[in-house]
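#random but structural
TW: two for the price of one
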Amino acid sequence: MKPCSKCKEGKPLEMFHKSKRHIDCLFPWCKDCCSDYKKKRRGEKKEEIAAQRKAYRQTERGAELHRASERHRRQTENGKAKGLAAKKRYLQKLNLANCEVSRRTLNAWAAQVKQLRDYCNWCFSEDNLAAHHILPKSRFPQYALDVSNGLTLCEDCHTTIHKQEV
């Protein structure tokens, strides 16, 4: 039995997290108190923590670590399953879950759109062309594969358009 320094109750040793920092190799708070504290802190500082994480990911080191962890996650069986589940949810959101819409189908749509014009509709550049949905797939899934719902844009103009939409 050990007393928790937060709730002052005597609890069995299994109710404490291990910690090499402390003399008895156990954290002074019980697992319940730790859990309550973390939940409370997460609720109070949610936006602040999200801003800190976003700022860190924008640094070179943070972006590198984020990419590495994403690559590792996708290689695990659990990560692959989550990726397939996310793809299924995305297609359901687009009301295309029962259709045979895949990355290959969207790439074919993009190739058709780019065949119509071999230059950017905005800046007339012929480099790094991409296909853009005029009506977003998320709001108008029925037009997701309609060639008339596409524009040929260079990567720079495409990025500019998506930044303006947000």
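TW: number two ↓
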Amino acid sequence: MTNDDAGNKPPPAGITSNVPPTSQADSPTNTRRCPMWYGIAADLMVAIHVAYVAYVVLGQLAIVIAAPLRWEWARNPWFRLTHLTAIGIVAYEALYRLRCPLTVWEEQLRELAGQTFAGSETFMGRLLHDILFVENMPEIAFTIGYCGMALLVLQGLIMYPPRPFRGWGRSEVVPAVA
């Protein structure tokens, strides 16, 4: 090997890289080497999002069916409180035009995977994404739907109230041992 005028050695023959061997390119934690895992994580995020929506919609359907039949499980205060909270969060985000964090995280994971937002590479990812996101709908339609659902859940709380939490509102007297 001969040096050039500046004293630099020419690159070795064959395939070369401009990344020094001490860089993180060879690290197992390098994010550019595992785009498949980001796509799977994005699909998982969509599945969680669909489960959240199903909890709100199917939960309300179950309450509407259970109320006239007087099924006690539908009066569970934890179920009713989490159900109201779930749709309350969605209605709040819609009214204040906040983006859903689950959607934002999915977009970020798809970007890291090198995919478009609507372009999962798996069948289940595409299916769940298409169930959840409706194209060409005005934003006001979603806001009205979310707020309407929140009012429906609130109306269900009033007409078919949950039972009190166990131990709340009761003052149990413990008899003294003689």
